[in-house]
Amino acid sequence: QVQLVESGGGLVQAGGSLRLSCAASGNILFRFVTMGWYRQAPGKQRELVAQVTSAGSINYADSVKGRFTISRDNAKNTVTLQMNTLKPEDTAVYYCHVREYWGQGTQVTVSS
What does the H/E/C string look like for 54-93? Predict the structure, then answer.
């Protein structure tokens, strides 16, 4: 059983910042797997925001490059998404993802 628990969402004005965290637990050696963040806005498909591999390679969606930073702490089995210069179009439910497992999601709302 794997559990992914997100925290850190909320309401922020455009230009502001939020930091999302995901704590992973269960019968996976998390240091050996890719960890990532996805988001889903109302009426849209879920999309990749950022992911970091076990080797530390990072991939960002073009829409967040230069504004978001993903990092992982293998000692704590956590993955963090620092979101700066937020825009209204970043409004979505953000999900932590590891292999086939998903967190429950955390709402991020950016007001204009």
Answer: CCCCEEECHHHCCCEEEEEECCCCEEEEEECCCCHHHCEE
Between CA 60 and CA 58 the distance in angstroms is 7
Contacts of 80 (CB under 8 A, 6+ apart): 19, 20, 21, 22, 70, 71, 72, 73
pLDDT digits (tens, 9 = 90+) for 70-98: 999 999 999 999 999 999 999 999 999 99
Q: Is 41 helix (H, G, I), strand (E, B) or coil?
A: coil
Euclidean distance between CA atoms 48 and 75, whole angstroms: 24
The whole-number average pLDDT for the span 14-25 is: 98
- pLDDT band (50, 70, 90) for residue 41: very high
pLDDT of residue 1: 87
CA 89, CA 30: separation in Å to the nearest integer? 31
Q: 108 in helix, strand or coil?
A: strand
